[in-house]
Amino acid sequence: ATCILKISVFATIFKIFKSNIKNNVYSYSLTIAMAICMSAIAPVLYTTKAESFSYNKSNMNSEINKKIISIVRLTGIKYIYGEDFWRMQLLNSIDAEVHSSELTDSYDKFVIPRTWLSRPSWYCINGEVLYYTKDGKADKIIESELKSKNGKILYNGAEGKIWLGPVIWSKPKWCN
Question: Transmembrane stretches, by residue range (predicted)?
Answer without folding.
Answer: 25-46
